[in-house]
Design a protein that fits this description.
globular; 422 residues; two-stranded antiparallel sheet; mainly alpha
């Protein structure tokens, strides 16, 4: 709400006019939920003041409010209370409080180092295209946005990074930031400690394996589907084709930047990207979606059932039934949310259903990709998408826990029943 009020100020707009409240709230929600869906162009509508407000909202939203609050506590040299540690444990998706403050310190340090290095590389690259001061400013803004998986950009004209479709530096740095922010701080910490411990946790193994698989499979599918598309890959040279395929495979994992026109993609590619957006990033990261670990459990459960196994085993570890139930619950609640939002939008918006499904999934996954309908949304449509972004960032299971009735653990069990399935 504070961000929306700041964006409504005349000094935040290049026209000097007040941005309508719903548009300001939509933009602030998109930034705080690290999404990137916009109803007004970030690069041309907002002044430097407005853009800095958006960048700060992205940073706070990406790292999490409690993480930023902990930073200020460190700065004031105060101790972290037990209550705050419990909140931090929940915010970072940890199973215990052990080492939670140390993890927060690492999160802040890693974020600062990665964003600073990326900003430097961006600045040097863009100094060839624009004045040095502007290149540095662009470098800082886009490093924050991409690391936090928010699809905001300052190039104007709703173009995102399409002018750098074949640029190896911009493509590589952006993809690195998206993946680094998307794998989660727990995995990042695990990788840093790998040289000392010489082993990875089960969580890190699953995240890294599934992330790599989704990127490679996604790039191959997009490359095949778009290879002969005259509006996307066909006119590009081989280098640009490969960069584009990989970039468009990485970015649906909740980032929102694009080097190809999303609306010009074939419908098969657009639908495939909807699947990638729904899966999303990994737990404890700056991204959304049902998460890679949830998807891994679902796929593994299917294969275990087909093979007739009673236990679900990943990397020689057996998963508890509770984890499987949680994965199924998250997926079903997420599907329900996307379906309901899509159905409502199909009655309020005069666009194709695929565009609506794409927009709804993008909002839920806090991605930021669009087929060009965000700016054309009705008042009701903007409010619904804003709520979807908030629900996606918070997580459907967390939202259900918060809104649902509180019930203690049952001390009894009903007799087992049998029914026909399938």
């Amino acid at each position: 709400m504070v961000g929306a009020l700041l964006l409504m100020l005349p000094i935040a707009s290049t026209t000097g006019e007040t941005l309508p409240f719903v548009d300001a709230l939509f933009t602030a929600t998109s930034a705080t939920c690290v999404t990137g869906l916009i109803v007004v162009d970030t690069g041309t509508h907002f002044t430097t003041f407005g853009q800095v407000v958006i960048m700060l909202l992205i940073q706070v939203g990406g790292l999490g409010f409690m993480t930023m609050a902990t930073l200020f506590t460190f700065a004031l040299k105060r101790k972290i209370s037990l209550k705050d540690r419990l909140v931090l444990q929940e915010a970072m998706n940890q199973n215990s409080m052990e080492g939670i403050v140390r993890l927060i310190r690492k999160v802040l340090m890693y974020s600062l180092v990665i964003e600073s290095c990326a900003a430097l590389v961006y600045s040097i690259r863009w100094a060839f295209d624009m004045p040095l001061g502007r290149a540095i400013y662009f470098g800082i803004f886009h490093s924050v946005a991409m690391f936090n998986n928010a699809g905001f950009d300052l190039f104007g004209g709703y173009r995102s990074l399409t002018m750098y479709v074949g640029d190896p530096i911009v493509n590589f740095v952006t993809m690195f930031l998206i993946v680094a922010g998307g794998i989660g701080f727990i995995v990042m910490s695990d990788l840093i400690d790998f040289r000392r411990r010489r082993r990875l946790t089960l969580h890190s193994k699953v995240v890294l394996t599934m992330t790599t698989a989704l990127i490679l499979i996604g790039a191959l599918v997009i490359f095949v589907f778009e290879f002969t598309n005259p509006k996307t890959l066909e006119p590009l040279n081989w280098g640009a084709k490969i960069w584009s395929a990989f970039f468009q495979s990485v970015t649906p994992r909740t980032a929102g930047a694009n080097t190809l026109d999303i609306a010009a993609l074939r419908q098969a590619t657009q639908f495939f990207m909807i699947i990638l957006m729904f899966i999303g990033a990994s737990p404890g990261s700056t991204g959304g979606g049902i998460k890679t670990t949830t998807f891994t459990i679902l796929v593994s459960a299917v294969f275990s059932m087909i093979r007739g196994r009673e236990d679900l085993v990943l990397f020689k570890y057996r998963l508890a039934q509770e984890r499987i139930f949680k994965a199924v619950t998250i997926t079903m609640l997420s599907l329900f949310l996307v379906i309901v939002v899509s159905m409502i939008l199909s009655t309020t918006e005069d666009v194709s259903f695929l565009s609506i499904l794409f927009e709804a999934t993008s909002a839920f996954g806090t991605v930021g990709l669009t087929m060009g309908i965000t700016g054309k949304l009705t008042l009701i449509g903007k409010i619904i998408i804003s709520f979807t972004m908030f629900a996606g960032r918070l997580g459907p299971l967390t939202l259900a826990y918060a809104l649902g009735p509180k019930k203690g653990k049952e001390l009894y069990r009903y007799p087992e029943g049998k029914m026909i399935i399938g």
